[in-house]
């Protein structure tokens, strides 16, 4: 009986083995069936590692009350994956390695006296980089200077949906809103579908609008600047800090742009619904800041960006910060710059200060100072 049982067991092992492995019943002292079993049954330590590493999950123990009785429940939850550092366009060319006396978190900075046009501080200011939603400042300038009817009601369509970055929006397809309100939330809250709708409803459509954006840039002497859309979602919207200072000076001359970019919050009507929007720059709410114009921007390729006009110690200044690292770093850099200017002016008259600007530059392949 023992022999019959042993024979039956050996036969079953051969039946479980792959057909091509049966011919190699002996290979280095092991049967094919044994090899097959070893492949699907790892060691205990290996199995524990697989379970621990599987989708970075872990078991959480919690207690529930079911029909008045305590019951222990184990639930599998996913751990958050570690953050992966994403390099910006500035990082890729080494601008983040440029050091400056103020220890700014922005790879690019440019500060000038708005009245005298004297440069007070600059760091990599001639390098053209992606500018994200700073683009909307040019969008607003074109809409205002084209004298389009701000009371005309426009409709959000599928053409306004972001198919580049797939960003979300509170403006649903089919939502109706006046051009003025679309302009307001595009500038104040950086609403992308609003900016897209503004460009699409320009005479000649979005292509004509982008062409007008680039024509206006050339008119203003913004030689490092190029636009491909009205929202800034594309990383192909590029400019230098010096160019953006020129845009800020021109935009500051428009009262509507000053108001819309600095309103702390605003409620709009969209197809019968009230939507509350807030400014992307919290500094406009701070009583110790006197800001006349501002615009923020962010995409991964651009980093955190900020363009701002402000009065500091009685002096109107234009500030531009590009490719900043950290969610609040661009506004923190603005604070560092303000403290530096406040300390500078009592010690040195404005004219003398303008004559000795701080200039910090990095050597960037393929770029040249303008």
TrEMBL record:
Which gene is transcribed and translated to give this protein?
pbpG
- Show the Pfam families listed in the entry: Peptidase_S11
Q: What is the protein name given in its UniProt record?
A: D-alanyl-D-alanine endopeptidase
Q: Which PANTHER family match?
A: D-ALANYL-D-ALANINE CARBOXYPEPTIDASE, D-ALANYL-D-ALANINE ENDOPEPTIDASE
* Swiss-Prot/TrEMBL keywords: Cell shape, Cell wall biogenesis/degradation, Hydrolase, Peptidoglycan synthesis, Signal
Which N-terminal residues, if any, form the signal peptide?
A: 1-23
Q: Does the keyword Signal apply?
A: yes
**Molecular function in Gene Ontology:** hydrolase activity
Q: Which domain of life is it from?
A: Bacteria
> Which SUPFAM superfamilies does the entry mention?
beta-lactamase/transpeptidase-like
Occurrences of domain Peptidase S11 D-alanyl-D-alanine carboxypeptidase A N-terminal (ranges): 98-325
Enzyme Commission no: 3.4.21.-
Return the similarity comment: Belongs to the peptidase S11 family.
């Amino acid at each position: 009986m023992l022999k019959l049982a042993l024979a039956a067991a050996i036969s079953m092992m051969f039946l479980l083995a792959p057909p091509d492995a049966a011919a190699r019943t002996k290979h280095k002292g092991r049967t094919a069936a044994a090899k097959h079993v070893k492949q699907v049954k790892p060691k205990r330590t290996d199995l524990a590692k697989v379970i621990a590493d599987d989708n970075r999950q872990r078991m959480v123990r919690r207690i529930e009350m079911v029909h008045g009785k305590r019951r222990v429940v184990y639930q599998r939850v996913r751990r958050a994956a570690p953050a992966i550092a994403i390099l910006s366009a500035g990082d890729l060319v080494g601008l983040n390695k440029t050091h400056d006396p103020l220890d700014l978190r922005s790879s690019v900075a440019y500060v000038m006296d708005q009245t005298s046009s004297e440069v007070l501080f600059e760091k990599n200011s001639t390098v053209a980089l992606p500018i994200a939603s700073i683009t909307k400042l040019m969008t607003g300038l074109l809409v205002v200077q084209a004298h389009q009817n701000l009371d005309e009601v426009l409709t959000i369509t599928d053409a306004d949906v972001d198919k580049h970055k797939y960003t979300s929006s509170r403006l649903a397809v089919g939502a109706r809103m006046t051009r003025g309100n679309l302009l307001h939330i595009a500038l104040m809250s950086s609403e992308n579908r609003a900016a897209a709708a503004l460009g699409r409803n320009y005479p000649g459509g979005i292509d004509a609008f982008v062409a007008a954006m680039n024509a206006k840039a050339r008119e203003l002497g913004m030689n490092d600047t190029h636009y491909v859309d009205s929202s800034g979602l594309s990383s192909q919207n590029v400019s230098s800090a010096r160019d953006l200072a020129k845009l800020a000076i021109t935009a500051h001359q428009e009262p509507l742009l000053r108001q819309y970019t600095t309103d702390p919050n605003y409620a709009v009507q969209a197809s019968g619904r009230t939507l509350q929007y807030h400014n992307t720059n919290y500094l406009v709410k701070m009583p110790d800041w006197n800001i006349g114009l501002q615009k923020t921007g962010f995409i991964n390729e651009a980093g955190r960006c900020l363009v701002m006009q402000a009065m500091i110690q009685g002096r109107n200044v234009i500030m531009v910060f590009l490719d900043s690292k950290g969610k609040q770093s661009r506004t923190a850099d603005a604070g560092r710059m303000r403290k530096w200017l406040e300390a500078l002016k009592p010690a040195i008259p404005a004219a003398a200060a303008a004559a000795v600007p701080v200039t910090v530059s990095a050597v960037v392949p393929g770029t040249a100072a303008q």
